[in-house]
Amino acid sequence: MWAYNLAKSLLSTDLPRRWNHSKGVASKARTLAGILGPDAELLESAAVLHDVGYSPRIVDTGFHPLDGARFLRAENVDERVVRLVAHHSCALLEAEERGLRQELEAEFPLEESHLVDALIYCDMTTTPDGMPTTTPDRIGEIVGRYGPDSVVGRFIRRAEPEIDAAARRVEGRLLQIGTSA
Questions:
Q1: CA-based torsion, 100, 22, 58, 74: positive or negative
Q2: DSSP of the chain, one letter per residue?
Q3: Are 126 and 24 in contact (CB under 8 A)?
Q4: What is d(CA 120, CA 177) in angstroms, rounded to the nearest whole number?
Q5: In terms of pTM, does the model score above 0.90?
Q6: Which residues does 137 contact at the CB level (< 8 Å), separation at least 6?
Q7: 55 touches 15 (CB < 8 A)
Q8: pLDDT digits 0-9 by tens, 68-126
Q9: CA-to-CA distance for 161 and 155, rounded, in angstroms?
Q10: What's the pLDDT at 181?
């Protein structure tokens, strides 16, 4: 798939752990095909690409959702994938912490809420090494890695209720169809 090749080219050499995480997030996205229908491939593409903004080759603002989305838009990637990357995992709250919220909102409209939820779920139930985890453990790991007083630490704690709610909504939809991710 083109998205894997692009993400691999940007992450695997410079950021191998980030690449493992991205592959794990994409793997989790594949488990949601039953609730996503025709949007399943779109979500998988966004999942594997969601962290390309960390690539040293494309960093601009230092805010990876914005940098990644701008890069993908310049590469003529499907606009829905671009919007999911721009807004993944409550990015508006982190953008606010960084003074970039208006810029992110103006440039990239939100994608459909069920897809936003699905990407939050996939990202926040996957460890940095690409393994499954729970949202509380993932949030704890992020706070531990960045520190509670860092921009990321403050943002993720603010985002925690929405992350938990998104995960519950996705898990509820999976239960309705009798599937477990």
A1: negative
A2: -HHHHHHHHHHTTT-HHHHHHHHHHHHHHHTTHHHHGGGHHHHHHHHHHTTGGG-TTT-SSS-HHHHHHHHHHHTT--HHHHHHHHTTTTHHHHHHHTT-HHHHHHHS----HHHHHHHHHHHHTB-TTS-B--HHHHHHHHHHHH-TTSHHHHHHHHHHHHHHHHHHHHHHHHHHTT---
A3: yes
A4: 20
A5: yes
A6: none
A7: yes
A8: 999 999 999 999 999 999 999 999 999 999 999 999 999 999 999 999 999 999 999 99
A9: 11
A10: 57
Q: Report the alpha-carbon distance of residue 29 to residue 36 in Å, rounded.
A: 9
Q: How far is CA 104 from the centre of its chain?
A: 15
- Whether residue 23 contacts residue 48, with contact meaning beta carbons closer than 8 Å, is answered with yes
User: What pLDDT, in 10s, does the model give residues 21-32?
Assistant: 999 999 999 999
CB atoms under 10 Å from CB of 109, counted, come to: 10
Q: H or E stretch including 146?
A: helix 135-146
Burial zone of 42 (CB within 10 Å; 0-12 exposed, 13-18 middle, 19+ buried): buried
102-to-69, 95, 124, 155, 177 alpha-carbon distances in Å: 15, 8, 24, 16, 38
